[in-house]
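Weekly modeling sync, notes
Attendees: AB, CL, MP (scribe)

Item 1: holo prediction request
CL wants a bound-state model with nicotinamide-adenine-dinucleotide before deciding which constructs to order. AB pointed out that an apo prediction alone won't tell us much about the pocket. Agreed to run with the ligand included and paste results into these notes for async review.

Input as submitted:
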Amino acid sequence: MSARLLNGTEIARQVRAELAPRVAAFSARAGRPPGLGILLVGHDPGSEIYVRNKGKAAAELGIRADTERLPHTATLDEVLAIVDRLNKSAVHDGILVQSPLPAEMGSDAEQRVFDTISPAKDVDGFHPVNVGLLVQNRPHLVPCTPLGIIELLVRSETKIAGARAVVIGRSDIVGKPSALLLLHRHATVTICHSKTVNLPAVAAGADILVAAIGRAGFVTRDFVKPGATVIDVGINRVTDPEVARRLLLSTPQRLADFEKKGSVLVGDVHPEVAEVAGVLTPVPGGVGPLTIAMLLGNTVKAAEASIGTR
Ligand code: NAD
């Protein structure tokens, strides 16, 4: 058996197309486009790419996106001052501070930033008010990657109600909110993590398996029930030729790319899982494009709420 691959790029395109009339309606009514303020601190190459892609996707949809930059030597107070300014801005409906912040800012810096962003502009959905609303199943702004996972499941007509769902990973950004969204759609949910005993056997009970771990090719075929839907959230940059060869054995074109570039992006799910799963998301081109589409959706939602049309 070979799993059906979910095309995240195409599904994200549909989501953006559905947002376009809402952007036009808001712009006509408010006399300005929805606006997203992005703050990038330092020069992390991954963050640079994410921020560029987010800004480009916003602009293509007619959303105003302004990126502010601070050097990696900036203080947390400087970051909070920009967040405060964006909180008060009349043209920015959403605020995004790109993670990770420089380690020198301290281990609680990101949480302090999330706590400072106005809940009404919190398009990442990390503010405790939005987290609380999600827990109580009256969500407003919900983290983008978990929203994208649900979008992929719904649009691929995967049955969630009554399904057994296993989420591997318990982060505040992906694992926990994904589990809550699945629970609210009536799945029976198990959250697994680094201390879970007998993880492959627990995972193999899942009709829907979400892998959000951050370890290349971690989920092997023994984790997967035949026919299960497997959502691979992981984005891991592999530079070790041995690991790359092991993971890319079945995709010679990607292996050739690796040999040329010296690095490759792979998910948390081993390619051999395609022989067991019923449905699988590829990396790249699975969850990633949805995350950006959901960020745009949250920005439009925040904008609409600001003028009382949502
Ligand atoms: P994180 O490091 O905050 O959390 C990882 C989780 O995995 C932890 O809860 C930990 O308990 C669990 N874990 C670690 N080792 C484990 C093990 N051996 N067995 C079982 N569980 C284990 O990471 P995160 O922010 O949740 O991101 C997870 C992955 O998803 C990363 O690869 C990240 O790059 C990717 N990601 C992708 C997108 C996207 O748009 N596709 C968005 C966010 C994150």
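Recorded for review: Residues 145, 168-171, 173-175, 192-194, 196, 199, 212-215, 233-236, 287-288, 291 surround nicotinamide-adenine-dinucleotide (CB under 6 Å).
Action items: CL to compare against the apo run; MP to circulate these notes.
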